[in-house]
Specification:
The complex is a heterodimer. By secondary structure, chain A is of the alpha+beta class. Chain A has two domains: 2-93; 112-339, BirA Bifunctional Protein, domain 2. Helices cover 42% and strands 18% of the residues of chain A. Chain A is built from twelve helices and nine strands. Chain A has helices at 2-20, 25-36, 41-48, 57-93, 112-126, 140-143, 167-170, 182-192, 231-246, 301-306, 323-331, 344-349, and strands spanning 130-131, 137-139, 175-177, 196-205, 216-226, 252-259, 262-271, 290-299, 315-322. A seven-stranded mixed beta sheet of chain A has the order 1-4-5-9-8-7-6, with helices on both faces. In chain A, a hairpin with a 2-residue loop joins strand 6 and strand 7. Chain A is rod-shaped and about 125 Å long. In chain A, 43% of the residues are buried. The termini of chain B are far apart. Chain B is α+β, with helices and mostly antiparallel strands. Chain B folds into six domains: 2-37 and 167-200, Phenylalanyl-tRNA Synthetase, Chain B, domain 1 (2-Layer Sandwich), CATH 3.30.56.10; 43-160, Nucleic acid-binding proteins (OB fold (Dihydrolipoamide Acetyltransferase, E2P)), CATH 2.40.50; 221-417, 3-Layer(bba) Sandwich (Phenylalanyl-tRNA Synthetase, Chain B, domain 3), CATH 3.50.40; 429-497, 2-Layer Sandwich (Phenylalanyl-tRNA Synthetase, Chain B, domain 1), CATH 3.30.56; 515-714, 2-Layer Sandwich (BirA Bifunctional Protein, domain 2); 731-826, Alpha-Beta Plaits. Chain B is elongated, with a radius of gyration of 42 Å. In chain B, the strands form eleven sheets. In chain B, strands 4, 5, 6, 7, 8, 11 and 12 form a seven-stranded antiparallel beta sheet that branches. Chain B has a seven-stranded mixed beta sheet with strand order 29-32-33-37-36-35-34. Chain B has a five-stranded mixed beta sheet with strand order 15-18-21-22-23. The chains are: A alpha+beta, B alpha+beta. At the A-B interface, helix 5, strand 1, strand 4, strand 5 and helix 9 of A face helix 6, helix 9, helix 11, helix 12 and strand 29 of B.
């Protein structure tokens, strides 16, 4: 018995010594084989059990089993510790500089005007407006005459026009670059009739070129034709549009104005999105506190009739705004010329990455 | 339109400051852009008398004046030569301030302060002033000091005299409100806006009708053209041409018109005050002493005051005077637009015939627009001038000429008129008023309209006439009031539109729909942005040279753009037939701005194509175009990140994939494409590298890849079909083979599939070959000329069982054998 005890003690202490000097998982595996393998020290002892008398065997078996459990536990613990250490060492070796530049393509950058258009049409979609589009090369008839702007009308002075043919020759059939998206309203009324709720985004063209006017710009107009339409729902539609687009409640005011195609006509001013009316030297609102953003009005009965709809039964309203101006206000862009030259460095400069 | 507050106050007593009135005008439709005080920088300037004037003791060309400045004396040195003792002048004492004037003569908003200044032994205390030094150069008559009238009160501050201290309102007048292009009109508008204000008697209401019989003979006025509603001629004899009084010159200068002479100034002054354009003829230059207002003949010509010759059409209207013995009267003015060169007044004019007329807004508008003449007269006539003002305007101007120059006036006018339009009553219904404004107080409405001189009339027949329907007659100066909506606008703008409640549109007639084009654009741009492209919007018009820059041949539809008839610049004259030039310009701009990294741009926009090369018909097509350039410095620490044809191909496929669409790329050709690197995507567009020649011509160092896709082709989307894979494991075998360079991968793939008995597209359940993937391609050492080695991984898998190795080997060997038989050299 004491012989076995001695052997157990011997195995245990030699194991502990060997384990103490083992520093790698590979070494540990070796150690495991040396003690618990087929020819391992403990295995040899276990095999020697069969040489004991049946009376001694159970007790000796228990001692050896306990020893085996102990060694296995120690190996497992040691293995975990060594794995942790080895992982840590490997991770330290594999350290990278996480501040290095990313690989592959960064995301692109949207055009502020296109983004503005998509945002506004989805706000208006929520109010039941559908998108209507039309040709950019228009006939005088749809661009002007249907909109209560005959050839002599002084309001045409406000919209100096690019023609594709001599307007003297072709008259109402003259081809021109549309000066507003209003002809889409006429075409939509003729096509769909009433009731009708549409927004018409698109490029428009006027013979103007200076720091605040581009010969090509982007507009969005809206039209609602239903029964018994009041000015109040025009206000509601526009207040939702502006607050939705700028993402907060903005003060507004509706000023009387004039457009040949609406009667009565107004203009919408919103509180300055830059200074909120608090900076007398503000370069965005020129110290007035107000920004003129939208022309609007109740559709002139002449125009309703041009659209093939009975103005005695239906009435409605229309509004129009410059998408470029809206984009410039939202994104604090102060020069129109940056918008149409496709310079990627300008558009990428707007992204929040270095 | 600039409104002088001082002149305005001659017409109305107003219980409001200029600032208050400006807000009220702005909110009710006459937007006041700015309020200016031109005398804001002037202080300490007062009237003085020149007591004596002597030559400077030592300095040639200088004079020393002793001034009486109101109880005090002052000494001033001046270089001016237009003074004499006894003259009244404006004098700025030391400490006085004036506007600072730039060397170019522009008046700034800064102040300059006067002081003491030594000229040799004489010390000058401040300065005697010219009008230019007060910021009004046009008011000066001669070089030198501004000489005031003899009765100018010595010691009185300049700002309280002659309008120097005026307040000016800059009003944007909308095209429907011609009546507001006058001080009188603005006064009437303010009368409507401020019910407590009082209009004063008009200046001409005190004038007498005049005596019969002109001292010079004058024949008939005939108006064969009904575009002239009425025509009046007044006469001024013994006219002497000299400058107008200083307060008139100041007023004209403030209102943006250059003072010229008493006669011209009188006509302009009346136009500014009343809104009635007038025209002065020199009687002695008229071809004959009679007037005919007629329409022009086609091709007839006139030379206007500004020296330009115009060719006319029958829609233009002329003032003419009969030529002795001639069959046709001779043009002397373009009616309502501009006078003729021959008959204008000059320094020797002594008899003036003054025209006051009413011309059709439409006719004048047509002529002025067509000829591009934006005269003050045409501007007013085309916006509507009160037809009752023409006679009154002549009277008022004649009385001013008499007052300012002692001209002989007081002769009864010669007049002619066509049928005058009857003012038509306009009805207002409570129902419509309420529909529009959600407010319908008819009594209050009538009061508001009355304030604007839009008067209620009983002269209107309706069975419902009464409480809910009223009729109104607009005054002669408001031709814009023609329909019920016009009345509602008057009421609405008076009340202020902020008074209306804010409601949302009610019941939806249908759901809001983005429509196919806008949703497609939204989807595609989201994908392009995610793949690293920058969105661009570029001009729809291009320089004509884009055709040659892209090497587009005559036979290409894109080489025949539509042209603008009136471009503003050669750079913007041809409608684009492709989006490429805009994107190439974007690339150029990017590189020029110093951007050295990769450039990826896309644009969704329209191109304009003729239906055929010779055709005048055209169509508009929406296109998505992209451009990729590796960059002038594409270096990064990472390998294999540089864009090339195949990375851009992946982008194109990713874009098509948003619509569930697959596409085949076949060898193609574009005039601007690299002959060996251009793919056509049948029915959809192309992907190409620019030809090396164009890359060189545009000065791009390195390949530029471009693609254009038709959005119409992408409008129909294919729904994705989802299929579970086989539950049984797959087996993989590789093959490597030599492929002739002119054989495409797609052709090889088709032959591999055919060899395995598999068809194109989706695998049917009996087919064992699931997929083939190219994983290596090699040419060079060990590969014969004209060939490349391609290695494919073939995936075999069945739907109903696990394939064993023997089975797979058997199929795979049969594939190899079949390919060998087709002539491939298997490796």
């Amino acid at each position: 018995m004491s012989d076995l005890d001695n052997q157990v003690r011997e195995v245990k202490s030699s194991f502990d010594r060997a384990a103490g000097s083992t520093t790698t998982t590979d070494g540990l595996q070796e150690l495991k084989v040396r003690y618990l393998g087929k020819k391992g020290a403990l295995t040899v002892l276990l095999k020697s059990l069969k040489d004991l008398s049946p009376e001694e065997r159970p007790l000796a078996g228990e001692v050896l089993n306990t020893l085996r459990d102990e060694l296995e536990r120690k190996i497992e613990n040691k293995k975990q510790a060594l794995t942790r250490a080895e992982d840590a060492a490997a991770e330290a070796m594999e350290k990278i500089d996480v501040t290095l530049p990313p690989r592959g393509r960064p995301a692109g950058a949207f055009h502020p005007v296109a983004q503005t258009m998509h945002e506004i049409v989805s706000i208006m979609q929520g109010l039941g407006y559908s998108v209507a589009l039309g040709p950019e090369i228009e006939e005088d008839h749809y661009n002007f005459e249907c909109l209560n702007m005959p050839s002599w009308h002084p309001a045409r002075d406000m919209q100096d026009t690019f023609y594709l043919s001599n307007p003297e020759d072709a008259g109402s059939g003259s081809l021109l670059l549309r000066t507003h998206t209003s002809p889409v309203q006429i075409r939509s009324m003729l096509r769909y009739g009433a009731p009708l709720r549409i927004v018409c985004p698109g490029k428009v063209y006027r013979r103007d070129n200076d720091p605040t006017h581009s010969p090509m710009f982007n507009q969005l107009e809206g039209l609602l034709i239903e029964e018994n339409v009041s000015f109040s729902i025009l206000k509601g539609s526009l207040v939702e549009l502006m607050n939705g687009f700028f993402g907060r409640e903005l003060k507004n005011r509706f000023r009387a104005s004039y457009f040949p195609f609406t009667e009565p006509s107004m203009e919408l001013d919103i509180e300055c999105v830059d200074c909120g009316g608090k900076n007398p030297g503000c370069r965005v609102c020129k110290g007035t506190g107000w920004l003129e953003v939208c022309g609007l009005g109740m559709v002139h009965p002449f125009v309703v009739r041009s659209g093939g709809i009975d103005p005695e039964k239906y009435n409605g309203f229309a509004f129009g705004m410059g998408l470029d101006r809206m984009a410039m206000l939202k994104y604090g862009i102060n020069d129109l010329r940056y918008l149409f030259n496709g310079n990627v460095s300008y558009f990428l400069s707007g992204r929040n990455v270095s | 339109m600039i409104v002088s507050w001082q002149l305005l106050k001659q017409f109305i007593d107003l219980p409001a400051s200029p600032e208050e009135a400006a807000v009220r005008l702005t909110m009710s439709g006459a937007e006041v852009d700015s309020i200016e005080r031109p005398g804001a920088q002037i202080s300490g300037v007062a009237v003085a008398t020149v007591l004596s004037l002597e030559r400077h003791p030592s300095k040639e060309n200088l004079f020393v004046a002793t001034l009486e400045t109101g109880g005090k004396k002052a000494v001033c040195v001046t270089a001016a030569t237009n003074l004499k003792a006894g003259d009244k002048v404006l004098y700025g004492a030391p400490g006085a301030t004036l506007p600072e004037i730039t060397p170019r003569g522009d008046v700034t908003s800064n102040k300059a302060t006067l002081g003491l200044r030594d000229f040799g032994e004489v010390r000058s205390e401040g300065m005697m002033l010219s009008a230019a030094e007060l910021g009004l150069p046009d008011v000066d008559i001669a070089e030198g000091i501004l000489v005031l009238p003899e009765d100018a009160p010595v010691g009185t501050d300049a700002l309280s005299l002659y309008g120097f201290g005026d307040v000016l309102l800059n009003v944007s007048v909308t095209p429907n409100r011609g009546d507001l292009l006058s001080i009188l009109g603005v006064a009437r508008e303010l009368k409507g806006l401020y019910p407590d204000s009082v209009l004063k008697p008009m200046p001409w209401e005190e004038k007498t009708p005049g005596t019969e019989g002109w001292p010079v003979e004058f024949g008939a006025i005939s108006l064969p053209d009904d575009g002239c509603l009425n025509y009046h001629l007044g006469l001024a004899t013994n006219v002497k041409i000299f400058p107008s009084p200083v307060e008139v010159r100041v007023a004209l200068a403030h209102l943006g018109m250059r003072p010229i002479s008493n006669v011209v100034d009188a006509t302009n002054y009346v136009m500014l005050l009343l809104g009635q354009p007038l025209h002065a003829f020199d009687l002695n230059t008229l071809p004959k002493r009679e007037i005919t207002v007629r329409s022009a003949l086609e091709g007839e010509k006139i030379v206007t005051l500004d020296g330009k010759e115009h060719v006319l059409t029958a829609k233009d209207m002329l003032i003419t005077s009969g030529k002795e013995g001639g069959p046709l009267t001779e043009p002397i003015a373009l009616a309502g637009v501009m006078g003729g060169k021959q008959t204008g007044i000059n320094d020797d004019t002594d008899v003036v015939v003054l025209e006051g007329a009413s011309f059709s807004a439409r006719r004048v508008g047509h002529t002025s627009r067509r000829l591009g003449i934006a005269s003050e007269a045409a501007f007013r006539y085309s916006r509507g001038v009160d037809p009752t003002l023409s006679a009154l305007g002549v009277d008022y101007a004649l009385s001013l000429m008499s007052e300012w120059s002692g001209a002989g006036v007081g002769y009864k006018k010669l007049s002619a008129s066509n049928a005058q339009p009857e003012p038509k009553p306009v009805i207002l219904t409570k129902k419509k008023l309420h529909t529009y404004l959600l407010w319908s107080d008819m009594e209050e409405s009538a009061k508001i309209l009355e304030g604007y001189s839009i008067r209620q009339t009983e002269n209107f027949e309706s069975e419902y006439f009464g409480k809910h329907i009223l009729a109104f007659v607009p005054p002669t100066w408001r031709p814009d009031i023609a329909i019920e909506e016009d009345l509602i606008e008057e009421i609405g703008r008076w009340r202020g539109y902020d008074a209306s409640p804010v409601h949302l549109p009610g019941v939806l007639p249908r759901r809001g729909d983005l429509g196919p084009e806008t949703s497609l654009a939204g989807t595609l741009r989201a994908r392009a942005l995610a793949r690293g492209y920058v969105e661009a919007i570029t001009y729809s018009f291009l320089p004509e040279s884009f055709v040659s820059a892209l090497h587009l041949p005559e036979s290409d539809l894109r080489a025949h753009p539509l042209f603008l008839a009136n471009p503003i610049s050669q750079d913007w004259m041809a409608m684009r037939t492709t989006l490429l030039p805009g994107l190439l310009n974007g690339l150029k701009e990017s590189v020029a701005s110093g951007w050295r990294g990769p450039v990826r741009i896309f644009e969704i926009g329209r191109v304009f194509l003729r239906s055929a090369i010779q055709s005048t018909e055209h169509r508009e097509l929406d296109v998505l175009a992209g451009l990729v350039y590796a960059g002038t410095d594409p270096r990064t620490p990472w390998p294999e990140t540089r864009d090339d044809f195949f990375s851009v191909k992946a982008d194109v496929l990713a874009l098509l994939e948003t619509r569930g669409r697959k596409a085949s790329f076949v060898k193609g050709s574009e005039p601007f494409g690299h002959a060996g690197q251009t793919a056509s995507i049948p029915g959809m567009g192309y992907l190409a590298r620019l030809s090396p020649a164009i890359e060189r011509e545009l000065d791009f160092a390195g390949p530029v890849y471009v693609f254009e896709l038709s959005l119409a082709a992408l409008e129909s989307a294919e729904k994705p079909v989802y299929t579970p894979g086989s539950p049984f494991p797959a087996s993989f075998r590789d093959i490597s083979m030599l492929v002739a360079n002119d054989k495409t991968q797609d052709e090889v793939l088709a032959e591999i599939r055919a060899s395995a008995g598999a068809g194109e597209g989706r695998k049917s359940s009996g087919e064992i070959l699931e997929s083939v993937k190219l994983f290596d391609i090699y040419s060079g050492k060990g590969i014969p000329e004209g060939y490349r080695s391609m290695a494919f991984s073939l995936c075999y898998r069945a739907f109903d069982r696990t394939l064993n190795d023997e089975e797979v080997d058997k199929i795979h060997n049969s594939v190899r054998d079949a390919l060998s038989k087709k002539g491939y050299n298997m490796r």
